[in-house]
From TrEMBL:
Transmembrane segments: none
Location(s), subcellular: Cytoplasm
Assigned keywords, A-Z: ATP-binding, Cytoplasm, DNA damage, DNA repair, DNA replication, DNA-binding, Nucleotide-binding, SOS response
InterPro entries assigned: AAA+_ATPase, DNA-binding_RecF, DNA-binding_RecF_CS, P-loop_NTPase, RecF/RecN/SMC_N, RecF_2
Keyword Cell wall biogenesis/degradation in record: no
Protein name per UniProt: DNA replication and repair protein RecF
Residues binding ATP: 30-37
Known function: The RecF protein is involved in DNA metabolism; it is required for DNA replication and normal SOS inducibility. RecF binds preferentially to single-stranded, linear DNA. It also seems to bind ATP.
Domain spans labelled AAA+ ATPase: 22-351
Organism of provenance: Croceitalea marina
Length: 359
């Protein structure tokens, strides 16, 4: 699968831009702030229906204009797929595949698998658990449509349960039966999600370990582990046991919406004890593992976006990625960099076709 053509109208800093891509390697070069990352983000937008960097749709519209449009022509399984994503202030965002608008964006997720490696991935280490849950959910959803639907249902019931807890508190009332209707549904959907996350991590963790060992030739022991209260108790028991606490807090304090991933190095949290280089290697291993997992599950090679790769990676890691490209492990690759010479030098060593775009 690859992206042949991209057209932008009023997307971030571009008023109008048309690009014809190489099926293998595309390098976007130019000075800081020229819009290299914005082009990668537009490609991400076509595959996921939202920006990777700024989820506020109105802020993706070029300043002083009223709408944006991203138009991409992909080739998948020898068929042309035209995806158009448009958004006008005050309206709903629309995604069309070959002229037909999706009712639900979730139906589009996974159709065009894509993985991005960017400096913003650091959030996975430094930010709260929701960032890591989104990562797991994102990887599973790209190859399991039912998972995303269950997650949507769980989130809906959770919101309703929280509203009910708030209502009880404001009106100084309580109705155990009304709450138990939600508890049952949370248990059903939550247990399904927990099982899929557990299964996913069972196969994902060894891939991650292998990627980390490839990138960093060091001996350090990095670990990725699933953290969930459902590992010890059923969700219905957890909900029953935390009833008083939830009533006091006016929200649901237990469930798969509290799951997390532990990132450790030699037994200590990587956030506090990992060097910058170790943290970078960890994140790249995580993203390359995502790439391999999706490739295996979806039976399609994802598009890979490498944002600011050379600033982020040292020579060994760049060499490692280049070796992978030569091994035909990758499909289409997009690389952004500020230095045209540096990029050209690297891609010339690869025996693959490439195109350089000077922005
Ligand atoms: N909604 C918007 N309207 C107009 N310009 C925008 C909008 N959103 C972002 N920009 C502009 O886009 C530019 C950033 O583009 P981008 O992040 O793609 O740069 P880059 O080429 O990747 O830079 P760097 O090399 O520093 O990473 C900034 O100048 C920013 O002001």
């Amino acid at each position: 699968m690859f992206l042949k053509r991209l057209s932008l109208v009023n997307y971030k800093n571009f008023d109008s831009k048309n690009l014809d891509f190489d099926p293998t390697i595309n390098c976007l070069v130019g000075k800081n702030g020229i819009g290299k990352t914005n082009i990668l983000d537009a490609i991400y937008h076509l595959c996921f229906g939202k920006s990777y960097f700024n989820p506020v749709a109105t802020q993706n519209i070029k300043h002083g204009t009223e709408f944006f449009m991203i138009d991409g022509e992909f080739e998948k399984n020898d068929r042309e797929e035209k995806i158009v994503c448009s958004f006008k202030k005050g309206m709903k965002k629309v995604i069309k595949r070959n002229g037909k608008a999706y009712d639900k964006f979730s139906e589009h997720i996974g159709f065009l698998p894509l993985v991005i490696i960017s400096p913003a991935d650091r959030d996975l280490i430094v930010e709260g658990s929701d960032t890591r849950r989104k990562f797991i959910d994102g990887v599973i959803s790209q190859s399991d449509k039912a998972y995303l639907q269950t997650l949507i249902k769980y989130t809906k019931i959770l919101t309703q349960r929280n509203s009910l807890l708030k209502y009880f508190s404001v009106n100084r009332t309580f109705d155990k039966d009304a709450l138990s209707v939600y508890d049952e549904q949370l248990h059903t959907f939550g247990t399904e999600i927990f099982k899929k996350r557990s299964q996913f991590l069972e196969s994902f963790i060894p891939i991650f370990q292998e990627q980390y060992a490839n990138i960093s030739k060091k001996e350090e022991g990095v670990l990725l582990a699933y953290q969930s209260k459902l590992l010890e108790n059923s969700l219905s028991d957890l909900l029953t046991n935390s009833l008083e606490k939830d009533r006091a807090l006016q929200y649901t304090s237990v469930g798969i919406h509290k799951d997390d991933l532990d990132f450790t190095i030699d037994g200590y949290p990587i956030k506090k004890f990992g060097s910058q280089g170790q943290q970078k290697s960890f994140l790249i291993a995580l993203k390359l593992a995502q790439f391999h997992f999706i490739k295996e599950q979806a039976k399609t090679t994802p598009i890979l976006l490498l944002d600011d790769i050379f600033d982020k990676l040292d020579e060994t890691r760049v060499a490692q990625i280049v070796a992978l490209v030569n091994n035909d492990e990758f499909g289409q690759l997009f690389i952004s960099d500020t230095h045209a010479d540096r990029t050209e030098k690297v891609v010339k060593t690869i025996n693959q076709s490439y195109k350089i775009f000077n922005l």
